[in-house]
Amino acid sequence: MKTFGLTLALLFTFYGLFSQTPKQMDSLERLLTSTSSDSVRIAIQRQLYLGYYDSLPKKAARVTRDMISRSMKSGYEKGTAGGHYLLGHLYVTSANYDSANYHLRKSLEIGIRTMQPNISLNALEWIANVHQKKGNLDSALLSVQRAVRIADENSAISGEKIARIKMNEGRIYDALGKYEEAVNTYVEAEKALPDGEIGLRGTIKAWIGNLYYRLERDEKAKEYFIQAQAIFKETSDRNGYYTMENKLGNIEQAANNLVAAEKHYLTAYAHFESVNGFSNMATIGSNLGYIYLSQKKYDLSKKYFGESTALAEKTEQISLLPYSYNGLGELYRKTNNLDKAVASYKKAIDLAEKKGATSYLTDSYTFLIEAYGEMSDFKNAYEHQASLIRIKDSMHQKSSLERISAIEAQYQNEKQEQEIALLTSQAQLAEQKTKNQRNLFLAGISVLGLALITMFVLFKNKQRTNLKLRQLEAAKSKFFANISHEFRTPLTLISGPVAHQLSKEGLSSDDKTDLGLIQRNASRLLKLVNQILDLSKIEAGSRKLRVSKGNMELFLKHLIEPFHYQATQRDMAFKSEIDIPEKVWFDRDVIEKVVSNLLSNALKYNPNGGRIDFKAVQEDQQILITTVNENNDLTEKELPLLFDRFYQNNAMHQGFGIGLSLVQELAILSHGTIHAYKPDAATIAFEVSLPVSKNAFSKADVSLEDGAATKIQKPKKEVLLEQNNGEEQLQESSLPVLLVVDDNAEIRLFIKTLFKKEYQILEAENGEEGINSALKTIPDLIISDIMMPVKDGIHLSNTLKNDERTSHIPIVLLTAKSGEENELTGLKTGADAYMVKPFKEEKLRVVIEKLIATREAIREKLNKQVILSPKEVKLTSADAKLISRIRQILDMELTNPEFNASAFSEQIGLSRMHLHRKLKALTGLSTSEFIRVQRLKLAAKLLKEGHSHISEVGYSVGFNQPAYFATAFKKQFDCSPSEYVNT
Questions:
Q1: Which CATH number fits domain 720-857: 1.10.10.60, 3.20.20.450, 3.40.50.2300, 3.40.50.300?
Q2: DSSP characters over 450-505
Q3: Residues near 768 by Cβ (< 8 Å), separated by ≥ 6?
Q4: CB 248 within 8 A of CB 264
Q5: Per-residue confidence at 948, pLDDT binned at 50, 70, 90?
């Protein structure tokens, strides 16, 4: 204890010294190695960071990384957050904004998760700073507004912290040109500061000085800059001090005091160079470039302009680059290097247009026009004049406009001379052409008349023929459509009873074989009927494209998975290659039917143990889909006939049905092509080429701007989980959680893409990981494959549905295993839905929507019950048992005033977290809310039964304070207890 006290005494000796001496730093290093307390270690490391920050930034980084590592090992989250914050702050100084943003957000996440607002506010302050330095002012403002909300919700936030938030807000308003809001916010910040806080007061004065400088009130700006610099010197804030040196240089440069300005700039530049302050060096370097340009010191000017542009590009200061490139252009002009001058001005124009910097843009165009004039390139000068006129303002000098007018006049003279020569030549050619035309006109008019009469007769005949053909095709299509619809009803009546019989227990193996044969052939007939219907719709012109933008690569990987499974079952080698790097425009139904038919044929006509290759690649604005399988029955001459319906090349061959014919029609409908060829004598290949550019389709073909369907409304949750880089982390979100369990990473990614806007997505690679994740996070919904390593989906469903903690979670099984028996096996585990791959996105969405709606209905029904009764609500057996146990505990303990959430979780046998999430899922209430509502329902029941003494009723149901009872009762029932009794 004595040692610990001594350690603290030494620590506080160093605390508050912003710039320690080497001797003090060595003492801190030794003290760090001798302490075992996490909080003391972190405090020492903070002081080491402050000591190394200016002079030894690499050592400062080492100290903060050690702070993060040690804190994470010991589980000291406050230290971990502090380390990430300091490291992020260091990266901001060196303009490594991506790394800074990463570490600051890590600190923010810990602050939110551990409900420590000061940590969150520190991180948000510098996150906003990063956004502002990168020019993302909207994002910066959002970060500040989030900080304001956190500060408003926590009365314990210090005045210094509130002042920092207000300063950030004012700085952003300043950058947006909202000067009145900026001034008001700066004043609020200074008012919030405690009397003893000097450093921040200096920063506020510096920012007010900036505002006056921007408004061209230089004397007022200089006054504030000098005041701020004096404060920074008193507080040993070296960065602040030398930033003011740069600002004073700006004032002197504007007053044309170049020697004084140079002195200020060089002093500031030397400091920021020593601490790797690249963003500040870029700004000061540009100013020095202009100073030396004015003094005709061209070598120095070129040096500083070059360094400035390189540093500005490195630190992404887009707004500074036009200023620097204009300076480079002026330097090149003064040294008679006009080609480089033109290139610099064009670079400045390009950057200024992106940034919308009008003042730089007008300067750049003016300099560029003058450079073209010096090069005697009047045409280019004139062409850039129009752009300059559109953006020029009252600051343009009269001499510049006169020069532009002279250039325009000279260019117009040259252009008129060229036009005169051209017109003379055209007149001579026209005279000769008139003579030739006169001779040909009489012969041509007679030939044209005869041709028109012939074409008219042919056109009328063709119209009559086409009308008859269309009528015949329409009658044929109508016949196929009608007869196909008639087939669907009896096929459904066959399939239904057969499925019912197959579900019965005790069937003999022969009966199962016969019924299975009936079922497979009924399914085959139904598929054939659907194909005929599709063809009839296409021929009748009623099948329209529904093109939307989506991720075809993921869609195809999801689509081919069942075929890969079927190939494996038949010992076939299935190889796939899909390379579509970006989102494209396509009709999902068309792609599904094309790919499914091609792969079905490849499986059907491929021998067991054979090989199937599937390839889909993007070439320019086309997608090429190719399937290759073994087949030595067909010749090259027969390949075009494969697209005829029910083509059969010999009496012994089973024929090709209408699948390939449907693929051809769908390809044509999609403005694409299909052809068959033989890569070698033993294989056959089909290649489909389809456009994937939006321009290839008409407006009527395009259904949505992207492939996402309408969002499903989901119940909100207070605190949820989301997977990020393999870790489960708390997030501030109202989205429910969806757990996807599948050993195929592409399938997980496909489902995540479909639902990422409606859910937070968790992922697991096998059943065991899925069970552990579900028990840990209690998601709102689970989508799981069946065939997986370690533990399969059947085991997962059985385990979770029989566990009180997770029995309420809806489970959807997605699998390539089709058939009634497999589906029954899955549903018997308690799974809520069973879907066969490839699945329809719309169908999966509807299934999920219905499951969520069912959970909501159960929740509402339980909330309406005065006495919980699991028999009146459709629940799983585990949930019903849990509700019964809850009812028993409430019967015994509800009127006990000492009965609370902790006692409830202890008696029920669940952790507080699991009980909280279980009650949230079943009733929508937290544990404490649930206890309070049950007490209020019991009180209402007693009042209804005639117990009119309100205070006694409150005491009897567990409320110690009558006033609190009355308040809670009114909030629950919208009336006071006395009003309830009277009504």
A1: 3.40.50.2300
A2: HHHHHHHHHHHHHHHHHHHHHHHHHHHHHHHHHHHHHHHHHHHHHHHHHHHHHTST
A3: 790, 791
A4: yes
A5: low
> For the CA atoms of the chain, what is the radius of gyration?
39
Torsion angle defined by CA atoms of residues 815, 820, 826 and 830, in that order, rounded to the nearest 10 degrees: 140
Q: How many CB atoms lie within 10 A of CB 463?
A: 10
Q: Do domains 1-114 and 321-424 have the same CATH topology?
A: yes
Give the C-alpha separation, 821 to 224, whole Å: 83
pLDDT in tens, 16-40: 333 455 555 556 655 555 566 666 6
User: What is the enclosing helix (H) or strand (E) of 782?
Assistant: strand 781-784
* β-pair partners for 685: 628, 677
pLDDT tens-digit map of 547-556? 988 888 888 9
Q: How many CB atoms lie within 10 A of CB 889?
A: 15
Residue 163 neighbours by CB under 8 Å, 6+ apart? 189, 190, 192, 193, 197, 200, 204
Residue 620 pLDDT exceeds 80: yes
**Which residue's entry shows tokens 């003579």?**
435
Q: Say what the pLDDT of residue 248 is.
A: 92
Identify the CA nearest to 895 among candidates 957, 825, 977: 957
Measure the CA–CA gap between 418 and 613, rounded to whole angstroms: 64
How confident is the model over 84-141, as pLDDT tens digits?
888 888 888 777 888 888 888 888 888 888 888 888 888 888 888 888 888 788 888 8
| CATH of span 321-424 | 1.25.40.10
Report how far residue 871's alpha carbon sits from residue 867's, in angstroms, rounded to the nearest whole number.
12
Q: Which residues contact 91 (CB under 8 A, 6 or more apart)?
A: 97, 99, 100, 103
Assign domain 865-982 to a CATH class: mainly alpha
pLDDT for residue 491: 66
Do 346 and 383 form a contact (C-beta atoms < 8 A)? no
**Contact assessment for residue 661 and residue 595, using Cβ atoms and an 8 Å cutoff:** no
Q: Which CATH architecture has domain 548-662+673-696?
A: 2-Layer Sandwich (3.30)
**How many C-beta atoms lie closer than 10 Å to residue 200's C-beta?**
20
C-alpha to C-alpha distance for 739 and 717, rounded to whole angstroms: 15
| Average pLDDT score, the chain | 76
- Residue 657 reports pLDDT greater than 90: no
Domains of the chain by residue range:
1-114, 321-424, 548-662+673-696, 720-857, 865-982
Per-residue pLDDT at 13 exceeds 60: no
Contact predicate 497/515, CB 8 Å: no
- Mean pLDDT value across residues 45-67: 71
State phi, psi for 577 to the nearest 5 degrees. -140, 115
**Element containing residue 724 per DSSP (H, E):** strand 720-724
Q: Residue 291's Cα: distance from chain center in Å? A: 46
Yes or no: say if 402 and 361 are a contact pair by the CB < 8 Å rule. no
Element (H, E) at 828: helix 820-828
Of 313, 255, 261, 318, the C-alpha closest to 284 is 261
Amino acid present at 798 = N
* Greatest mean pLDDT range, 8-12, 83-87, 493-497, 550-554: 550-554
CB contact at 8 A, 4 and 32:
no
Question: Residue 63 — very low, low, confident or very high, per pLDDT cuts 50/70/90?
Answer: confident
CB 757, CB 764: distance < 8 Å: no
The pLDDT value recorded for residue 763 is: 93
CATH topology of domain 1-114: 1.25.40
Name the residue with tokens 């095709």.
Answer: 473
Find residue 783's DSSP bridge partners. 740, 812
| Parallel/antiparallel/unpaired status of strands 811-815 and 781-784 | parallel
Tokens of 943: 């009042």
Closest CA to 685 of 661, 660, 710: 660
Interior angle at CA 643, CA 642 and CA 645, nearest 5: 95
